[in-house]
Amino acid sequence: MKRMLAASLATMAALALSAAPAEAATTVVSNSPIVGMAGTPTSAGYWQVASDGGVFNFGDAKFFGSAGGQHLSAPVVGMAATPSAAGYWLVASDGGVFSYGDAPFYGSMGGQHLNAPVVGMAATPSGHGYYLVGSDGGIFAYGDAGFYGSMGGQHLNKPVVGVAATPSGRGYWLVAADGGIFAYGDAGFYGSAGSLPLNAPIVGMSRTASGRGYWLVAADGGIFAYGDAVFSGSAGSLHLAMPVSGMATAGTGYWLTARDGGLFSYGGATFAGHAVYTGSPSSGTGSTAAQLAQSLLASSATFATVHPSGVKDNANAKQNVVDTAAGKPASRSCYGTAPCGTINLKVTMLQAMLQITRAATVRVSEIAGASHTRGSLHYQGTAFDIDLINGVGGPGNTIGHAQADPLVAICHSQGAQQYWLEMADGTVAGANSKGNHVHCGWSPSVA
To answer: Side-chain half-sphere of 282: how many Cα atoms within 13 Å?
Structure first.
């Protein structure tokens, strides 16, 4: 393993805006965060894709269409190019697939039940098939893509965030946010970052041309090279306005793309321009509920799958976040005072929750589910509870102000109207008392 400690600045030239295929370095405005990219076989061009399905082409990469401007049931989360570079696929978090140019459509998970949102895709070497991967490690194979196993239904320390296919088409790798690698079929295991202390979660991977190595990329731009993958530099020591969201291989080099469209080229990868997204960087991960939920699933946080009452349903905190990440509304419980039905989780609340995960390791015990007092903000999709902070608390245990107050302060700074340490009976814990969870809530008109 070659861990990257060096950094290399990529040249980022800005010329006139162009909607045509870029022949020189150029910039193009994106309405949504950039969530992935793919490169051409020549290493002289690439595409960037935005969460709204917009596609931006640079260098010798041609434009064959996009989902930009169309109504999408769920945000786009990645893309893959055909071997000829004359087409590409886009994939959304609900498993929907969009094909352009010479990319055939072989099927999708759009409209079907998912246990976890789709987070990425990889094409087979022939271009006659592709894999979709869910954050739970589930694999969906289409066309000539063979199924060789998955992590679906198994315990993961952190969610899966990417997939890469072997050059033979008879295997693939999955990578998790903690850097863990899972190899299937003829995919060789060459190492992982699973046991390393990471400064930022892994967000993607790319294999070498030989298939005897691979790179992992972290949200801070750090690069981890294994097998015959050559380390050619990273953005790990740079200050990034928004996190890196993906990478693509260019021979022995590679490109990295950030959510604001920033493009970093290393080794033999040619810089030809980049998209520019100027939306709110407050969350560091884009501003839609689905994007924030996807980031929460990749964060250090855990989410309860059973209500404190012991009731099990599809309105638990984990399922609320999974559904939101897939572009769906969150379910409410149907017992006690709970009103049943569904509700869209609000962006302001999710941004605060994500900020908390950067300050502490927490477990979110409730969001829209369970039975609360009538008129509870939980039922409006604008409140959450946390019952475990840096190992303190959890079912049957208490939390003190020393653990709770820093989180309460974050909620207050993010405009919450309710922010306190709460006791099991729903009352606010006094200055000298302990509680069993932190409660934060926003007025629906604010959130």
So the answer is: 13
Cβ contact 216:206 at 8 Å: no
Q: Are 95 and 118 in contact (CB under 8 A)?
A: yes
Helix (H) or strand (E) holding 181: strand 181-185
Between helix 289-297 and helix 347-359 the angle, nearest 10°, is 20
User: How far is it, in rounded angstroms, from Cα 36 to Cα 48?
Assistant: 6
Confidence band, pLDDT 50/70/90 cuts, at residue 283: very low
CB atoms within 10 A of CB 267: 17
At 232-278, the pLDDT tens digits run: 999 998 988 888 999 999 989 999 999 899 999 999 999 999 999 87
Claim: this prediction has a pTM higher than 0.85: no
- The structural domains of the chain, ordered by start, are 26-276 (2.130.10.10), 289-441 (no CATH)
